[in-house]
C-alpha cells in the first residue's frame, strides 16, 4: 500500500444517506478485469442513458472533477461487498471519504486500499459541504486527525491502529504471513480436536 | 461465564488477538465466485505464493453465467473473461471448481448449505455480502472484499474487528401466506437498514424455532440488509436433519462427534447482548417494497407513504426521491400496481421450498399478457429436484421461462436485465436504483407474492388468492 500522510484537494459533497455500492460502481462494470472503474464511478448519477454527462451532478462540475475528498452521508457504502466500489473512488482520484458512518465491509475495504474513511459528525459534514460549494479545497491531515480549511478545522475519527497502518502503508497479507507458525499451530490443534470439520473437505479434495 | 452463540463460535476460531485489537480468525471453508476473486489471484501471483490450504476452498460460477438452459461458459460473451479466469485459477491452485457443467454448480449461498459446506460452529467466508445466509445453519458466514479473499487464500485467516452482538427475538407465529421473507423484510422496515451495523445478529424466539432450515437461510440472507455483516441462528434438530447425508457433511463417528459439539452452540441463559429488539410475527402481512432500500417496505394491503410524514428531514428527501425513481405517488395503494417483469430466484429465494411455494399459486393458471416471467433455480441441484417434481412443467405451462441456475436478474450482470423504466417484482434482496438494469424499478417480495403478481399482471394480496 502507498503510504499516506495528508491529502489536499477539492471535497465533493455527495450527501445522500445510505449510498450503496451498486450506486458507487454499477454491476455492469464488474464484468471485466480491464473495466474503466473511474468512468464507472457513480455512473448512473453522472451520465444519462446516452452516456452524456448530467451537468448538475457534482463530479461533473469543474473543481470537483479533480476531487480528492468526498463528503458523504451516513451509512456510506452499504449493500454489496464489491471492493470495486473503493477501487472506483481511488481510480477517480479520491483518497478520503468523510461521513458520519460507514457500512462495515466498505469501511474495511477502504483501509486495505489506502483510502481513508474518516468519521465526522453530520453537522460538521454539513458545514464543510456549505463551504465547499464556493471554496472547495480542503486538507485532510492524517497526522493530526484534522480536516483543515482556511482557519477552520474539524476533527475526524479513525482507529489509531488503522491510522498508523495507512501512514506506514502496511501490507496486511505480508504481516499475517509472518505469523504462519502460529496459524499452523492452530490448524494442527484444530484438526486434532475437531476432525469432523476437516475430513469431508479432505475427502472431496482427494477426488 | 455466560456466552452468546456468536461468542462461542468466534472464540473457538480465534488464532490470536492482534496488537491493533482485531482478531485473527481461522477460516474453516472459503467459497469463491467468479466476480470477486480474479484480482486476489493476481495478488498471489505477484507475491509468488501458493494458496495455503487449497483443500478448504471450493469455487463455483454463478454471477456472470448465462442462465440459458443450453448455456456454456461462453454463451454470454461479456462473461467469458471472468469465467475463464476462475477456471484457470482454480485449476492452477488445486481448488475444486463446480462450474457450468457440474451438478454441484449454483449460487454460492445456495450450494454452501446444499452441499453441507456450511456447518454449525464453522466460519465460512466468501467474497460476497450475502454469505451471511449460512448463519441459518449455525455457521458464521462472513462476506468479504477482494483483498480479504486474497488474505484468506494466502493465510486461511481473516483479521476482523469483533462485532458487537445484537439479538432479534421473534414472538408469535406467522399467519397463512406469510413467509420468512416477509418476516425479515418487515423487520428491516421496523428497525432500519443500519440497525445492525457493526453487530453480529442472532435471530431467536419461537417463530425462528418453527422455521424450516431453508426458511432460516432466507432470514439470515438479509442480515446485510440490516447493516450486519453476519446473522446466525442456533442449530437444532431441524438443522441436523437438513445436513445429514450431504456431500461435505461429516459421517459416522465424526457426525456423532459433530452433533455433540453442535448441541452446545446456543446462547446461554442470561448472556448479554449489546443491543436487542423484539418483533411480533402476528403483525406481519405479506410484504412489498415501494422504494429503493429494503426499509422502504409495507404490507401488501398498505400504500406508498407520504414523505412529509417522516419526522426526519433526511428520510423525507430520500423517500421523495425513491418514490420519484419508482414512478409512484404518495398515498398510492400497492395492491393493483401493474408489473412488467416477475423474477423468482436468487440466494434469498431460489431454493426448492421457494419454487414449491411459487408453484402453488401458478398451477393451472397463465402468466398475464405482456408480463415477462422467469424462474431461475438457485442451483443445478435445485433445478434437478424441481424437475423431478414436475415444477418445471407447472411454470412452463403457465408461461414462465424455466432457466438454468445462477444469480440472473438479482444483479443483472449476466444479460438477464430489466429494461429502463420497467417495473419488476422480484424475490431477490436488493431494490437499489439500477440494480436490475439502468432505471429498472424493483419491488421485493416473497416467492408466492411474485408468482401471484405474474399471473395477475399486477401486485395482489396472496391472502385473498388463498382464501
Ligand atoms: S443471487 Fe444476488 S445477492 Fe445472491 S449472490 Fe447472486 S448476485 Fe449476490
Give the tags.
heterodimer, A: alpha/beta, Aconitase, domain 4, B: 467 residues, alpha/beta, Aconitase, domain 3, Aconitase, Domain 2, 19 strands
Question: How is this fold's topology laid out?
Answer:
The complex is a heterodimer of chains A (207) and B (467).
Chain A: E1 6-14, H1 21-24, H2 37-40, H3 43-46, E2 69-72, H4 84-92, E3 96-99, H5 104-112, E4 116-119, H6 122-134, E5 137-141, E6 146-149, E7 152-155, H7 160-168, H8 172-177, H9 180-193, H10 199-205
Parallel strand pairs in A: 1-2, 2-3, 3-4
Antiparallel strand pairs in A: 1-5, 5-6, 6-7
Chain B: H1 5-12, E1 14-17, E2 23-26, E3 29-32, H2 38-47, E4 57-60, H3 80-93, E5 97-98, H4 108-114, E6 123-126, E7 140-143, H5 146-155, E8 157-160, E9 164-171, H6 180-191, E10 199-204, H7 206-209, H8 213-221, E11 230-232, H9 237-243, H10 252-262, E12 275-280, E13 287-289, E14 297-299, H11 313-326, E15 341-344, H12 346-349, H13 352-362, E16 372-375, H14 380-388, H15 391-398, E17 401-402, E18 423-426, E19 441-444, H16 447-456, H17 462-466
Parallel strand pairs in B: 3-4, 3-6, 4-5, 6-7, 9-10, 9-12, 10-11, 15-16, 15-18, 16-17, 18-19
Antiparallel strand pairs in B: 1-2, 2-8, 13-14
Helix pairs in contact in B: 2-5, 6-8, 13-15, 13-16
Bound molecules: iron/sulfur cluster (SF4).
Iron/sulfur cluster (SF4) binds next to helix 4 and helix 12 of chain B.
Amino acid at each position: 500500500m502507498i503510504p499516506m500522510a495528508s491529502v489536499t484537494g477539492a471535497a465533493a459533497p455527495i450527501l445522500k444517506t445510505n449510498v450503496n455500492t451498486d450506486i458507487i460502481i454499477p454491476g455492469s462494470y464488474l464484468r471485466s478485469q480491464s473495466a474503466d472503474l473511474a468512468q464507472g464511478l457513480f455512473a448512473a448519477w453522472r451520465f444519462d442513458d446516452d452516456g452524456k454527462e448530467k451537468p448538475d451532478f457534482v463530479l461533473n462540475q469543474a473543481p470537483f472533477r479533480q476531487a480528492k475528498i468526498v463528503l458523504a452521508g451516513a451509512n456510506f457504502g452499504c449493500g454489496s461487498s464489491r471492493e470495486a466500489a473503493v477501487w472506483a473512488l481511488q481510480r477517480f482520484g479520491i483518497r478520503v471519504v468523510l461521513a458520519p458512518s460507514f457500512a462495515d465491509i466498505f469501511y474495511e475495504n477502504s483501509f486495505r486500499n489506502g483510502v481513508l474513511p474518516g468519521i465526522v459528525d453530520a453537522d460538521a459534514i454539513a458545514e464543510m459541504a456549505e463551504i465547499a460549494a464556493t471554496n472547495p479545497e480542503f486538507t485532510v491531515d492524517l497526522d493530526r486527525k484534522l480536516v483543515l480549511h482556511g482557519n477552520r478545522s474539524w476533527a475526524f475519527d479513525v482507529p489509531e491502529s488503522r491510522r498508523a497502518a495507512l501512514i506506514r502503508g502496511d501490507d496486511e497479507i505480508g504481516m499475517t504471513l509472518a505469523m504462519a507458525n502460529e496459524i499452523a499451530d492452530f490448524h494442527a490443534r484444530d484438526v486434532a480436536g475437531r476432525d469432523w470439520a476437516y475430513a469431508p473437505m479432505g475427502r472431496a479434495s482427494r477426488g | 461465564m455466560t456466552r452468546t452463540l456468536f461468542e462461542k463460535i468466534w472464540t473457538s476460531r480465534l488464532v490470536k488477538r492482534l496488537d491493533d485489537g482485531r482478531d485473527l480468525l481461522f477460516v474453516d471453508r472459503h467459497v469463491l465466485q467468479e466476480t470477486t476473486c480474479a484480482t486476489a489471484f493476481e495478488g498471489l501471483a505477484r507475491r509468488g505464493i501458493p494458496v495455503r490450504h487449497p483443500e478448504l476452498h471450493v469455487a463455483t460460477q454463478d454471477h456472470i453465467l448465462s442462465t440459458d438452459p443450453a448455456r456454456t461458459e461462453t454463451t454470454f460473451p461479456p462473461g467469458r473473461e471472468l469465467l475463464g479466469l476462475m477456471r484457470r485459477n482454480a485449476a492452477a491452485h488445486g481448488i475444486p471448481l463446480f462450474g457450468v457443467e457440474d451438478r454441484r454448480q449454483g449460487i454460492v449461498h445456495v450450494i454452501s448449505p446444499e452441499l453441507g459446506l456450511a456447518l454449525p460452529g464453522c466460519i465460512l467466508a466468501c467474497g460476497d455480502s450475502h454469505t451471511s445466509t449460512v448463519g441459518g445453519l449455525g455457521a458464521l458466514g462472513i462476506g468479504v472484499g477482494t483483498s480479504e479473499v486474497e488474505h484468506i487464500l494466502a493465510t486461511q485467516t481473516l483479521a476482523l474487528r469483533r462485532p458487537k452482538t445484537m439479538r432479534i427475538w421473534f414472538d408469535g407465529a406467522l399467519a397463512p401466506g406469510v413467509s420468512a421473507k416477509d418476516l425479515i423484510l418487515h423487520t428491516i422496515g421496523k428497525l432500519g437498514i443500519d440497525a445492525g451495523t457493526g453487530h453480529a445478529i442472532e435471530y431467536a424466539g419461537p417463530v425462528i424455532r418453527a422455521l424450516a432450515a431453508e426458511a432460516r437461510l432466507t432470514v439470515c440472507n438479509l442480515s446485510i440488509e440490516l447493516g450486519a455483516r453476519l446473522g446466525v441462528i442456533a442449530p437444532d434438530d431441524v438443522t441436523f436433519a437438513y445436513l445429514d447425508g450431504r456431500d461435505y457433511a461429516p459421517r459416522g463417528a465424526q457426525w456423532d462427534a459433530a452433533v455433540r459439539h453442535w448441541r452446545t452452540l446456543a446462547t446461554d441463559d442470561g448472556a448479554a447482548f449489546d443491543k436487542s429488539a423484539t418483533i411480533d410475527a402476528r403483525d406481519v402481512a405479506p410484504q412489498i417494497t415501494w422504494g429503493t432500500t429494503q426499509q422502504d417496505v409495507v404490507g401488501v394491503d398498505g400504500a406508498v407513504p407520504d414523505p412529509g410524514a417522516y419526522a426526519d428531514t433526511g428520510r423525507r428527501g430520500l423517500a421523495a426521491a425513491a418514490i420519484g425513481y419508482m414512478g409512484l405517488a404518495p398515498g398510492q395503494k400497492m395492491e393493483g400496481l401493474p408489473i412488467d417483469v416477475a423474477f423468482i430466484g436468487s440466494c434469498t429465494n431460489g431454493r426448492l421450498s421457494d419454487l414449491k411455494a411459487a408453484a402453488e399459486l401458478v398451477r393451472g393458471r397463465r402468466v398475464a399478457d405482456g408480463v415477462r416471467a422467469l424462474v431461475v433455480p438457485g442451483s443445478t441441484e435445485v433445478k434437478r429436484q424441481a424437475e423431478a417434481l414436475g415444477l418445471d412443467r407447472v411454470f412452463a405451462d403457465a408461461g414462465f421461462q424455466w432457466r438454468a441456475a445462477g444469480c440472473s436478474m438479482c444483479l443483472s450482470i449476466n444479460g438477464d436485465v430489466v429494461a429502463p423504466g420497467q417495473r419488476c417484482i422480484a424475490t431477490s434482496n436488493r431494490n437499489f436504483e439500477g440494480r436490475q438494469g439502468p432505471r429498472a424499478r424493483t419491488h421485493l417480495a416473497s416467492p408466492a407474492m411474485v408468482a401471484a403478481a405474474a399471473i395477475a399482471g399486477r401486485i395482489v394480496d396472496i391472502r385473498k388468492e388463498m382464501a
